[in-house]
Amino acid sequence: MSKSSKPPKDPEGRMALTDHLRELRSRLVKSVLAIVLMTIVAMIYHRHIETFLMEPLPKCNTPAEIAAFQASGKKCAQVSTIGLTTPFTLTLKVALTAALVATVPVWLYQLWAFITPGLHKHERRYALGFMAGGVPLFLSGVTTAYLLLPTTVQVLISFAPGDTTPILPPENYFSIATRLVLLFGFAFEFPLLLVMLNFGGVLSGKRLLGWWRGMIMGITVFAAFASPSAEPISMLALAAPIWVLYFVAVGIALLNDRRRARRNPDDGLDDEEASHLDLSVEEVASAEAVGASAAPSAPVPVSAPVPAARHEQMDDIT
């Protein structure tokens, strides 16, 4: 065997610890390379991306714009950059965020490819479906965050006292925008994780349904801390979709448990719980009568008597 040939793969997906670490390193390197390449592309078009992200921000850099906003009863912000290296740091942050969003299929696939060797053949088919569902969920979270940006910014600016106009550094705004985008994207993946655990046999749909009070409370607390502003609008905008997706995940888990129970009634039993046994007594049919045989039975042979010397030898042995 040549040194370059690879060892055969285990059909059950068993791997040594070093092989697992090597596989993890390979998947991480591929994901990082894809993100780096997309970051370079995003840095080339960073002005278009920055303009797109700045669209929800109410900007007023001239006295006429400030007067127009004040007449409408809304607040605006003057955008001003401070620092020599700030524009480069800002560009890098925006490009990296855009690369993370654009390479969602790549790093989700690498995650799926790392988990696949440890799954059974029928579970790998489900994992591919989860990966296909994870991309639109992440993009839905990103879209929700972008649509929420104008309300979030307006609420934050409204805390400015009197007729003052706040001066907003762009790095401050982009920090809020990128944090909101990535946070919503990853938060929308949480129900998908619950479905994956159910299909893997870790959590049952009944147990997930029993956790609904704690889940709602936990999601609400998470949204309160994760939201960039303290107002309830952005908190509910983050928590409400996850509530809905959680109950959708519970419904899918219950349907999967019902389908699994039809195929295997003993699948839901615990490892230490005995399966159901049918102990009902069935009536035995009447036995047929056996007629007596006319021919005499053969005589039973009588064994020959054992000699006395043989008896004495056996006594000596015992």
Automatic annotation (TrEMBL):
Chief location: membrane
Ranges annotated as biased composition (Basic and acidic residues): 309-318
Transmembrane region(s): 28-46, 94-115, 127-149, 176-197, 209-227, 233-255
Compartments it resides in: Cell membrane; Membrane
Biased composition annotated in UniProt, kind: Low complexity: 288-297
Membrane topology value: Multi-pass membrane protein
InterPro entries: TatC
Keywords: Cell membrane, Membrane, Protein transport, Translocation, Transmembrane, Transmembrane helix, Transport
Span list, region Disordered: 288-318
Purpose of the protein: Part of the twin-arginine translocation (Tat) system that transports large folded proteins containing a characteristic twin-arginine motif in their signal peptide across membranes. Together with TatB, TatC is part of a receptor directly interacting with Tat signal peptides.
PANTHER family on file: SEC-INDEPENDENT PROTEIN TRANSLOCASE PROTEIN TATC, SEC-INDEPENDENT PROTEIN TRANSLOCASE PROTEIN TATC, CHLOROPLASTIC-RELATED
Family: Belongs to the TatC family.
Subunit: The Tat system comprises two distinct complexes: a TatABC complex, containing multiple copies of TatA, TatB and TatC subunits, and a separate TatA complex, containing only TatA subunits. Substrates initially bind to the TatABC complex, which probably triggers association of the separate TatA complex to form the active translocon.
Protein name per UniProt: Sec-independent protein translocase protein TatC
Protein source organism: Kitasatospora kazusensis
